[in-house]
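Reminder: ligand-aware prediction takes two inputs, not one.
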Amino acid sequence: MSLSSRHLLGLHGVPKEDIQLILDTATTFREVLERPIKKVPTLQGKTIVNLFYENSTRTRISFELAQKRLSADTINFSTSTSSAKKGETFKDTVRNIEAMKVDMIVVRHQSAGVPNYLTRISKANIINAGDGLHEHPTQGLLDMYSIRERLGRMEGLKVCIVGDVAHSRVALSNIFGLKTMGAEVSVCGPSTMIPLGIESLGVKVLNNIDEAVANNDVLNVLRIQLERNAGIRIPSLREYHHYFGITRERIEKFNRDIVILHPGPINRGVEISSEVADGPYQVILDQVTNGVAIRMAVLYLLGTMH
Ligand code: CP
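Here is what comes back for the chain with phosphoric acid mono(formamide)ester:
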């Protein structure tokens, strides 16, 4: 079994069989992560560069750890310590890195479309680790894995993506992936944070958070992206928390089992209360653990393709 593409640029158009294969392969690697020696020789001899032009904690460490667990040689590039600071263009940087014979490039960039552009200027396998407001496919995959792990399936589940959908690449990857896997997907947030016409992706729009809590199996709670100036779309963070924040009272009002995801980093007391972020409904740190297994699966499946 192999994937239908040699790159992972997004989950838009990725066939169900590919997503299934990645999730099932991740289950095998999830078991490896529980062993005393958490390492397999699968990608020995492969060289992978992590090209991060934008800040990251989870994704960067998770990819690096996944590469080390698979015995690949890894190189970490960050703009602040590179010759990009001296004015070197992105294309020249990539060409120079490629001349050192790298097999795969994991890229995070503030501009949408950069991973796609890389496929045209590089022979390496390209993995998108988040590009602008476009997609974050490994986050979408680890979210789906965590939902399946907790609820046993995705088909027929009701999943609502809550909050700053307009600024979220996580939202798009979730929508594409979850719909392909047969889930019913909705979005909920202030109308200023819901892109016009998002219904054309086959999602329902809710503006009332109580309705979202009452009628869904899963809430994927998004961060208010203050660094992308999301604050101008709401009167205040306090008001946002009042109307859309996920709190224990809100969940328990409807007295039902619900699974709470959050991609991190969290704004405690804004989109989610600390009580929920650390409480029994959430799977936030399971998502982080599962992220390593998902990234191992993606690296393995792309790195061993012929
Ligand atoms: N979820 C996520 O992408 O987190 P980082 O920005 O820390 O990688």
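Residues 284-303 form the longest helix (20 residues). The pocket of phosphoric acid mono(formamide)ester is lined by residues 56-59, 130, 136, 139, 263-265 (CB under 6 Å). We will return to this case in the review session.
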